[in-house]
Specification:
Blueprint (H helix, E strand, L loop, with lengths): L6 H14 L6 H12 L10 E2 L13 E11 L2 E13 L3 E4 L9 E7 L5 H11 L1
Antiparallel strand pairs: 1-5, 2-3, 2-5, 3-4
């Protein structure tokens, strides 16, 4: 799948690539690999992160993310690999938006929320103004 890129960043990377190592084989192939490895996307990739690998950043304490959760938030409700929204707090752990009173949900993976579509973002800005 193609990624959106920033033109200025791409040009800066090409200039830097020319300076670093022109002996690395056919320049165009090397440059393509270099850009894939170093060029940021305009939106974060939609990839799940295992809670065993890392937790959401501390400076974003409680920021809403998507999670995959297992467990029983209530006696008559069992969740098995359900995708929900939640926040992670250093002192409290995971707090699920749908079940804020649930203590100790088993969260296995998380990912940042995707950005809203551009046309919706414009509409929201108009409402907020």
């Amino acid at each position: 799948m193609a990624r959106a890129i920033d033109k200025r960043i791409m040009l800066d990377l090409i200039i830097e690539a020319k300076k670093t190592d022109p002996e690395t084989g056919p320049f165009s192939e090397w440059l393509a690999e270099y850009l894939v490895d170093h060029l940021p996307t305009l939106t974060p990739p939609n990839e799940w992160v295992s809670v065993e690998d890392r937790m959401p950043e501390d400076e974003n304490d409680g920021e809403t993310v998507l999670v995959i959760v297992f467990g029983k938030p209530h006696e008559n409700i069992t969740l098995h690999g359900v995708i929900m929204t939640a926040g992670y707090f250093r002192d409290e752990g995971w707090v699920l938006n749908e079940y804020p009173e649930w203590e100790g949900p088993e969260v296995t993976h998380w990912m940042p929320l995707p950005s809203p579509p551009a046309e919706l973002e414009k509409r929201l800005r108009g409402v907020r103004a």
